[in-house]
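Q: What would this complex look like in 3D?
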Amino acid sequence: MESKFEWGLGNCSIFVLKPCNLKTLSAIVFADEDGHRLNAGGRILLKNQHGENITAKYVVITVPLTILKDGDITFVPKLPADKNRAINTIQMLRAWKIICQFKRRFWPEKLHQIYSVRGFSSEIWMWSRGSAVNDDNCHVVVGLETAESAEQKSSLSGQQVLEGFLSYLDEMFGTPSDPHPATDSFLDYVYFHRSNHLFIRGGYTSLTAHVHDLRHLFARPVEDRLFFAGSKL
Ligand SMILES: Cc1cc2nc3c(=O)[nH]c(=O)nc-3n(C[C@H](O)[C@H](O)[C@H](O)COP(=O)(O)OP(=O)(O)OC[C@H]3O[C@@H](n4cnc5c(N)ncnc54)[C@H](O)[C@@H]3O)c2cc1C
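A: Here is my prediction, written as structure tokens for the whole assembly.
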């Protein structure tokens, strides 16, 4: 378990637990040795997968929803049934992002964002800075794909996503005299597929029908000691 930040608030300590040397939080024990729920004074026991322990009076859980769905963390006793229902029902599908740098701006100056529902990347942003007096130029296009469309492309490598993205930009911005503006002016790229990360396994929690109330259930603390937070809410 990784870092401990001491805050200058009397004896209040905040531990931030992150996977470190593959030590991940594997259990939150919220009961005494006889299996009874802790009273207000009792401390919550946190275990990693090597059996190392720390205790805390309050716990804020910010791991991605996928980690809770997959049962990486055992709760003793089990979380309330309605919270488990929320965890199991709310979806967290895939998402990836690609950031490409170009030698020149090949899109209209005032164009900054494109929503392209059936395109290779459904959301595209462009950012450009050019200087008339020196070489301080930077032209960047970002592609974001989420949910089912990202699932469909989940087996593509970074290079394949790059090729698909460049040819999609060429298709949009190519002209008879300049048919491959993106491919021809491409400099460099970064690709990140969050769903493939060992400790994240997903992109965003998707707003699907009938989950609104479940989000409230999911966010609700357990006995004012165990709190749930993070972008999954
Ligand atoms: C493709 C993509 C691109 C994005 N780009 C941007 C961007 O450009 N700018 C921006 O502001 N936001 C961006 N976001 C949103 C941003 O990434 C999220 O809002 C933010 O990371 C959410 O923070 P979080 O702490 O809730 O979850 P996370 O950042 O997912 O953090 C959860 C943490 O829990 C840890 N964890 C998992 N299992 C355990 C365990 N068992 N024990 C202990 N720890 C564990 C994980 O390692 C991770 O560190 C992007 C999101 C996606 C999907």
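A: To summarize the key features: Residues 17-19, 24-25, 62-64, 67, 72-73, 95-97, 194, 199-200, 203-204, 230-231 surround flavin-adenine dinucleotide (CB under 6 Å). The radius of gyration is 23 Å.
Q: Very helpful, thank you.
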